[in-house]
Structure formats: C-alpha cells, structure tokens
Amino acid sequence: MTEPAEISSLTLNRLSLYLRCLRQLQDAGTTHVSSGQFAQHFELSASLMRKDLAHFGEFGIRGTGYRVDDLAARLTTLLGLDRIHNLAVVGMGSLGSALARYLSFNDKPFRIVAAFDVDGRKVGHKIGHLVIHHSRDIPEVIPQTEAQIAVLSVPASAAQQCYEDLTVSGIEAVLNFAPTQLKQHPAVRTKSVDFQINLEELAYFLSS
Amino acid sequence: MTEPAEISSLTLNRLSLYLRCLRQLQDAGTTHVSSGQFAQHFELSASLMRKDLAHFGEFGIRGTGYRVDDLAARLTTLLGLDRIHNLAVVGMGSLGSALARYLSFNDKPFRIVAAFDVDGRKVGHKIGHLVIHHSRDIPEVIPQTEAQIAVLSVPASAAQQCYEDLTVSGIEAVLNFAPTQLKQHPAVRTKSVDFQINLEELAYFLSS
DNA sequence: CCGTGTGAAGTCCTTCACAGCT
DNA sequence: AGCTGTGAAGGACTTCACACGG
What we know:
2 copies of one chain form a homodimer. By secondary structure, chain A is α/β, with parallel strands linked by helices. Helix content of chain A is 40%, strand content 18%. Chain A contains 8 helices and 9 strands. In chain A, the strands form 2 sheets. Chain A has a 7-stranded mixed sheet with strand order 5-6-4-3-7-8-9, sandwiched between helices. A two-stranded antiparallel ribbon of chain A has the order 1-2. In chain A, helix 5 (94-103) links the parallel strand 3 and strand 4 (110-117). In chain A, helix 1 packs antiparallel against helix 4 (68-78) and helix 2 crosses helix 3 (46-54). The longest helix of chain A is centred in the first third of the chain and has 19 residues, at 9-27. At the A-B interface, helix 1, helix 5, strand 8 and helix 8 of A face helix 1, helix 5, strand 8 and helix 8 of B. The first copy, chain A, binds a DNA duplex through residues 8, 10-11, 34-36, 45-48, 50-51, 53-54, 58-66.
C-alpha cells in the first residue's frame, strides 16, 4: 500500500516514462487527466499505469482522474529526482563526450563531477570546467569526489577492468555502454544500455 | 521445433548476447563449451540458453555440449548478421556523430548510407565520404538509398516529426535515441534506447 | 555417465472486471 | 455517472527436473 516492497525494473522505468509524459501535459497546460486519456494519448496501458502507481499509494481522485502537477511532483520525489546525483564519466571518446554534453544541461538532476580517459592527449584537458583524469587514477580520484554513479563509455576490451576499479573506489551504481557482458559486483547496481543488441534485433525482422 | 513461431524480444536479445560471448571464446581459442560452462563464465542461465536455442532447432551434441565455431556461425546466419544492413542516421549532433563513427567500423554488418541534420552549417558537409542532407529532405533522399533502418538521434522536440517523415519514406525500422514516447506507426518496427530512464532507475536505488 | 532438449512447475508481469469513492 | 484502486484471471517468461541420445 504505502512502502516499496521490492519494485521491479519494469515498473520503475514506466514511472520515469509517466513523469516525462506528465511534463509534456504540463507544458501543454493540461491540469487534469484520467488514466484512460493518458493511456490513449501516449499509447500506454491505463490499468497498468494504475497498478504501477498503486505500489506507492493513492494518487488520483475517483470519478475525476489525476491532477497533473500533483502527480508529477509526487513522482519526482518518489524517484529521487528532486535531489542532485553526482556522476563520473569513464571514457571520454565520442560517446562519452556526447553523454557528458547531454548531461551538462543543468535543469537535470544529474551533475558530472569527474571524467576519466586513458588517452594521454586528453588527460589534463578540460571538458567544461572539469579536468580529465587518467583512468588509472580512478581508485584515487573517485573517493575525493561525491560521485555515486559511474557512466562507463569505454571500448568493450577495457570495460571489465574499469568496472572493477570503479567498484573498489566506492561507486554505488554503474551505467554501462560498452557492448560486453560485465561480471557484476553484487554491491554495485549495474545496468547496461546496449545499442548494438537493439540494432541487431531490428535487423532480424527486416525482409531482405 | 524448426521455424520461428513468434520470437520474443528478450530471447532475441539474448541470442545476440550469446553470439558476442561465443566470439570471445573463439578469440580465446576455446573450441567446445557446454551450456553449464558457458553460463557460469558469462553469468547467464544454462537452461534459459538451451530454451532460447530450442526456438530454432538443435545446436548441440548430447553428452558433449556445443562446438563454438558452429554455434557462432549458425547464430550469425539466424540473426541475419551475415548480410549488410543499410542505415540512415537522422540528427548529427554529438550523439548522432558518435553513433555514426562507431558504426563505421566496417567489420560490422551495418553500413551508413545516409545522414541528415537540420543545422545549415552541417548540411552539405561530409562525415567520412557521406554528404549530410537537410532533414526536410528525408522523404526525397531515403527512397534513393537502400536504407532500411533509421537511427533517430535528434532532440526530443523534433523526434515525432522526423519519425513520421521516415515512416512515409519507406524505412522499415527505427532505433530511437530521443527521450520521448513516440506515437508509433504499425508498419515500422520501432525500438527506443533510453539512457535517461536507465539512469533514473539507478538513481532511485541510491542511498542518499 | 554427461549434457542437451523439453514438458511441467513456478514465478513474474499484465489485463480484466468490478467494488467503492466522488 | 465516471474513474480509481485492486483482487482475480490470464499470459509470458524462467527454472526445474528428467527422459533421451551420444
């Protein structure tokens, strides 16, 4: 009813999605919405949305629906997006730089506090106001920062080593972009974003 | 037994993953592997792997396991990765450029045949040997190429419009990187890679 | 005897359908 | 009357456990 027993990834990801959609409604000036209208507009499931929300309590008004501002605010708090989370980016190749740039827009609840690369030509240079450290110094530098989450955007061949350096440096979570199956550390929450596998899935269904 | 009834995304994604792992074994010189050894080495499930493969036939030898080369070859064919698939990249910002660069390594079964952006300073310039077209010309240019899959890496605000232009131009599949819920076209297979939502999931579980 | 291939069991996730609140 | 919140039904995915082939 009130407290998260153990919430599934799928539900959590949808909650993020709902919040994003609610913000679109806010921008459009919509103040109230029912689960049915919401589902139709964004091509989602109304009953699933209600079930997802039910994990955390009651958010709506029977007979009326949901107040957009209220639901958005409550989801923001619930997901912890009213706090700033500090990130370390490991691997400042083109992907790492793109992610860093994207995350540096400061209306977001994420802030980059450390950057690493193995390339001697990049080390010491600045990206924004941030010095790039050598990857070998991860265990030394991370504890001096408040970084909780690491974004791992190194080549597949270097990913496992970097991952392990991060785990010993006290990082709490890792978002991996390297196309490799990491041997996971149980105390570090780890997710992979694997665009290659998604592309291969699409390719499978093509006619020719 | 033999023919794909209707294969799930989850199974398909794992098949891609198995193939990737098998290639690591090939590089290490391993010629034979049982599902148990494989699962232990890569932290996967042995019985699930066998079930996944069972969708497509029999691949192993009872009492022995799998021949690495053979299984890798059969998965490659099965997933259609022995053919080249042509891509269009829409949105040549830092993310689109990073993806383009990554995909241009030519041992991969993907080849970029068209690139688009709205930025007048980029249009007409070349990325590698490829001219960047204006996004408004998508419906005109795409049919002249053999592009089957589009990679959509534009800002969220432009994603829906670009998506629709792509669908009318005859694209068969879209891999969306924009953090927005697309209104999907039924004839176009569409997947989203949403790194923001994954990051928010990690943030949820952090202590402070 | 070992490991695959596979029905059956179990678990997790989604949809249905309706009681109850507004 | 309309819509939420929710038990119960249904479906999808994973794990179990063992018959069978090598």
